[in-house]
Amino acid sequence: MKKIIVLALILSLQVNAVAAEKKVIYDFEGVKSAAEWSVSKEGKLELSTENATSGKKSLKVTLPVAEYPGFSLNIPKGKTIDWSKFDYLKMDIYTASEEGFTFEIRIDDDQSKSEEPDDVFGTWSSTSKTAQQGKQTIDVDLTLLNTNDKTRQVNLNKITKFTVFMLGNSAKTPQILFIDNIRLEKD
Fold this sequence. Notes:
The protein has helices at 2-20, 31-35; strands spanning 22-26, 37-39, 44-48, 58-63, 70-73, 88-95, 101-109, 125-131, 134-141, 159-166, 175-185. The protein starts with a helix and ends with a strand. The chain contains 2 helices and 11 strands, in the order αβαββββββββββ. Helices cover 13% and strands 40% of the residues.
């Protein structure tokens, strides 16, 4: 009996250790999680049962033909999110676009100056990624996340903005992509 209890305790500790190495931020299984996101003017966000990688739903994003089409997590003004215990931000995406596209992942912290009229580019971090046709996992190494002006590291325990956008969308038609399983992971 003691061996069974010890074995159960060991298994419980291992499960907890694995859970601590990964934190799902959004898997879009509920209406509330989709409502916490916004999309650029003339774009569209909707829950979908297509291309889900975690659970049964994904977020279908329709990006309009525009200069900087994108979508953002709505973090209330004055609030922050703590990502400091993790090394990577990862998300699963799917696009049917044959030519693929390049996009930016923008992350602001409490020292970013994104509310000023000049929208000071150097005070946040943006990372370029390329999406190819089909399913793929996109990752951002949080341990290397510096501001665009390279003057400091992003304060991971005070994230204030998370945005995904395309630069100068050259597409002639709106781009549709599916996002799911946005998560933080340890190395």
